[in-house]
Amino acid sequence: MITVQAPDSTAQWLLLDVPGEPRAGAALRQQFAQARQFLLFDGTEFQPLREYGPVLVDLEQCPLLAGLCHREPHVWSGLLLTSEASPAHLLDHLRRMLTVSFGLHHRALLSYYNPHTASYFFDACDALELSRWLGPISQLRWFGGTWADRAIGSQGWQQLFNPGLAVSALTVEENLTPRQQGTLQTCMLEQHVWHWSRSTGTDYNRLCSHVQEGLALGFSERAVLDGWLWLRLQYPDIFPVQPLPGNTQQERLDNLRNLWQDDPSEQPDP
Fold it and tell me: Which of 74, 98, 247, 266 is found 20 to 30 A from 67 (Cα to Cα)?
């Protein structure tokens, strides 16, 4: 993945991330109703949500919107695509990318059209995998970065070129590689940390450190990990003694909370 100062103007399509920026979807309907556009969820298992899903917009017939994508990328959030494929072929590929599988019996919606997800997912693809995932897309650009990038204000334009290697077409419910799964899990965890940082006013990197500490203690369940973060923010300067007593994650967290709360020397400052 290449970080660029600004995108060029050759993108032919905008895949608008309406789920991530609902106001952009409303603005598209109000300001650019005449633009040729396709609802990505149409004809898929997500059809009932098609009005709230991503929209593929033809930028060649709407130069004003193309300019706004470059000047106001936070508003017109999504992916800028360059492709010589027909709209039908491009849509078929983009819809095929929506549903993925992992493990033996798990399926999920891959929100690759979200700039944050794209910043993680495509970075976890090697040249062969990228050739399969991009398919008829020759170039892909978006404004964004990781959640850590957003936390420190260092988002920028990202750019991908299709390596164009000889590969088989993307399958229906493509199976994610372990690296892709791990990267997407990191994306979700760091998104959670970012929301915690925003809601508590706590430094993002400090919270990341607390999360890693909690995971090392075995607090992998989301509710327990959240409980650990609240506890850690109250008692930032002490270190838990291991092993923690308890048969479950919640029991171990409760025992740790009781231990710290019952120790007068460990009471948080008023």
Answer: 98
Two tokens at 175? Answer: 């199976």
Average confidence (pLDDT) per 10 residues, the chain, 270 residues: 56 95 93 95 96 96 93 95 96 97 89 97 97 97 96 94 96 94 96 96 96 95 97 91 91 94 59
Give kind and range of the element (H or E) at residue 269: none
3-state secondary structure of 183: helix
Q: Which amino acid is at 96?
A: R
CA-wise closest residue to 154 among 185, 184, 119: 119
Judged by phi (left if over 0) then psi (alpha if -120 to 50, else beta), residue 214 lies in alpha
Task: Determine if residue 146 is left, alpha or beta; phi over 0 gives left, psi from -120 to 50 gives alpha, anything else beta.
Answer: beta
pLDDT at site 100: 96
Place of tokens 């500490």: 213
131 contacts 163 by C-beta, under 8 angstroms: yes
Helix (H), strand (E) counts: the chain: 10, 10
Cα 121 off chain centre by = 8
Q: Are 169 and 135 in contact (CB under 8 A)?
A: yes
